[in-house]
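tokens incoming
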């Protein structure tokens, strides 16, 4: 595959490089803002699951805060530095990371918390949806500690079978909850974004990091009647914007001539690096499947 073929297949990938964004995801946040004016009046924001950092780039350029720390970016992966963005490397589902973030906002809460977190997908839909929900709830838990009243929370969500449970939990804390799908998010993906505005926790609610928000005592299938919350679904991004599921010719419709642009910021320590090095040396082991082994040898497979 030539290095230009991805540019042809994915117009947002190409435009991201040409506009200096570290990832095509930047367009998702920009299109969400077009619809919901997320950045209006925002001076302090948290970007959870931020690497390689295109949402942090957008935030640091669009919001009115000054100096380092008006945007706090958190990710498992190391991220190349960005001006005005304070970075925390850690797992948002871990207490120690949550505490570090919360400490930063003590006495000076945030206006906006965003989370574009995605677990490594397994292809097992139920598992992927569950993991995604855990990430979202970890992000919500952090948001309840750092958001100021009226603040906004935006998080990636997988529109799976049990998504109404999540909507119901979000509605406990926000006066408005919507599900939005930006043009730059592929139709073929179950990804969408929960846009929660007007942070307004129930009276007497005390944020507590020791109590996970996902309440396993719920029976998912019994959410009906008044407990079943149906949230509005909104698409955003101009309808004339590029369709993320289409391939476009390399010369764009506005007549601009194609010129290859390298990625703005290649990942500094990607998790697949070790596999690439092993592959180059021809030392990447092939998966051993039980059906390929002679009968009776399966128990001796390496663990
Ligand atoms: N919004 C980012 C941007 O614009 O550059 C892209 C985010 S990428 C789709 C998802 C990120 O979620 C990955 O960088 C991954 O490391 C991070 N992630 C997944 N699980 C996490 C966790 N438990 N804690 C922190 N980050 C996590």
């Amino acid at each position: 595959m030539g290095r230009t073929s991805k540019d042809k297949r994915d117009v947002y990938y190409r435009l991201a490089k040409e506009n200096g964004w570290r990832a095509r995801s930047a367009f998702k946040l920009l299109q969400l803002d077009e619809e919901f004016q997320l950045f209006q009046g925002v001076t302090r924001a948290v970007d959870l699951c931020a690497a390689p950092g295109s949402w942090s780039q957008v935030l640091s350029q669009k919001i009115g805060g000054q100096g380092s720390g008006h945007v706090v970016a958190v990710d498992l992966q190391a991220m190349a530095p960005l001006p005005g963005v304070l970075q925390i490397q850690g797992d948002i589902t871990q207490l120690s990371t949550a505490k570090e973030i919360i400490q930063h906002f003590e006495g000076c809460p945030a206006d906006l918390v965003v989370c574009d977190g995605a677990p490594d997908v397994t292809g097992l839909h139920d598992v992927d949806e569950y993991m995604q929900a855990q990430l979202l709830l970890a992000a919500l838990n952090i948001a309840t500690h750092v958001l100021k009243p009226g603040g906004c929370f935006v998080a990636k969500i997988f529109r799976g079978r049990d998504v109404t449970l999540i909507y119901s939990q979000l509605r406990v804390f926000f006066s408005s909850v919507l599900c939005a799908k930006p043009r730059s998010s592929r139709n073929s993906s179950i990804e969408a974004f929960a846009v929660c505005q007007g942070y307004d926790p129930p009276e007497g609610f005390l944020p507590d990091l020791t109590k996970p928000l996902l309440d396993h005592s719920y029976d998912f299938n019994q959410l009906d009647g008044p407990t079943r919350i149906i949230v509005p679904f909104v698409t955003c991004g101009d309808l004339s914007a590029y369709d993320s599921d289409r391939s476009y010719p390399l010369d764009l419709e506005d007549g601009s001539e194609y010129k290859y642009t390298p990625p703005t910021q290649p990942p500094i320590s990607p998790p697949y690096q070790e596999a690439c090095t092993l592959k180059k040396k021809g030392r990447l082991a092939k998966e051993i499947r039980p059906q390929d082994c002679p009968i009776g040898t399966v128990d001796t497979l390496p663990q």
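note: Residues 22-23, 25-26, 49-55, 75-77, 91-93, 116-119, 135 surround S-adenosylmethionine (CB under 6 Å).
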